[in-house]
């Protein structure tokens, strides 16, 4: 009888040890590691220069002289260079009459090159993929693009496939969040996240200025990213996801309408970008940062900010007659690199001012905009690839990703570098030329005078 209590204690101790080990294993499998990623580089024959962009504008016979001048101003001030890419139907002068097959061909070219390259680089194959997340905002065929990839690569019948549409430029991190959550329900699993945008069927051929902007900013591109929660693969991973925060201020009417797909007065469909977009971006950014800051900043910085904020409020009478800005959080105390969405020069500048960054901090975003244009949800990965190609990322560094999208949404995350990052990727053939000595647009000398013409404030 004396052995019974002892046996009970031993069994309880064993049960506690098993549960503790299971909890530790579950916690380890809840982590998210970036194994590798690929940014799509379309073929050279799909490059579009500013001269070609100008010719494309001239083909639209509906435009009057004021409209033409407006678009030239956009081109001159866009920050986009001479080597971005467009779909074939635009090169073939069929932008007014795209077909469903044009959109499928655009996606297939991306799938066939980027995903295949990712499998070749990583050593994993289609049969290893447990979770597939595909994100293309403006094109939703049936069967879905996710099913198209499953069929093309012969993935397993039990692969968990998700297809996101209508989520805008911010969906790159939404897709990562979805993949991370799907991995949490599986042990030692692999997720493939594919992001792109369909440009071929979405050219706007009308005369609404707010809807013309998208034609000048968006270009072809895409990314394929391989994630895992398998702790055994941590040694092969490039980065580990530390936190991810999402903010959506669509309840605000102005924010919801600042980037909106709609019809113009003549019934032509396009994406309208209003003057309220930069303001909405800053507001969504502020909401996001309130949740992000406590997760990534050291206690000392949070205490400093809190103390200055309290003192300002307590001594508000001393600041009443002054126009000094309030205290700002120094995000550089918790972040080493800033991977910002290259949505346009105005958005980059707004984030730069909000975070108190310098030109070096936003260089990757500006150079990405110059080389690739705005490739929508995949843009962040081109920015990260620029940092990697420049050899700026070392083990232990923390990278803050920030992206914006229609809704209006702001999503952010922090990665910690855990492995060697020395791949030049899509930047391999041009990284030594960046940053260029001059960012002047070739149209500047020819049309620079139009910057002095009064007109609408651009949101680029």
Overall description:
- Mean pLDDT is 87; it is low at 452-458.
- The chain has one domain: 3-Layer(aba) Sandwich (Peroxisomal Thiolase, Chain A, domain 1), CATH 3.40.47.10.
- 43% of the residues are buried.
- The protein has 16 helices and 13 strands.
- The chain has a nine-stranded mixed sheet with strand order 5-4-6-7-1-8-13-12-11, with helices on both faces. It has a two-stranded antiparallel sheet with strand order 2-3.
- Strand 4, helix 6 and strand 5 (160-164) form a beta-alpha-beta unit.
- Helix 3 (65-77) packs parallel to helix 8 (209-217), helix 10 (277-296) crosses helix 13 and helix 14 crosses helix 15 (379-389).
- It is of the alpha+beta class and 460 residues long.
- It is globular, with a radius of gyration of 24 Å.
How far is it from the N-terminal to the C-terminal residue, by CA?
82 Å
Please mark out the parts with pLDDT under 50 across 5 or more consecutive residues, or reply none. Answer: 452-458
**Largest beta sheet: what is the strand line-up?**
5-4-6-7-1-8-13-12-11
Number of strand segments: 13
Return the string of H and E elements: HEEHHEHHEHEHEHEEHEEHHHEHHHEEH
The third-level CATH topology is: Peroxisomal Thiolase, Chain A, domain 1
Helix content: 40-55%
| CATH superfamily heading | Thiolase/Chalcone synthase
Overall structural class, as computed from helix and strand content, comes to alpha+beta
| Largest sheet report | 9 strands, mixed
CATH-level-2 architecture: 3-Layer(aba) Sandwich
The whole-angstrom Rg is 24 Å
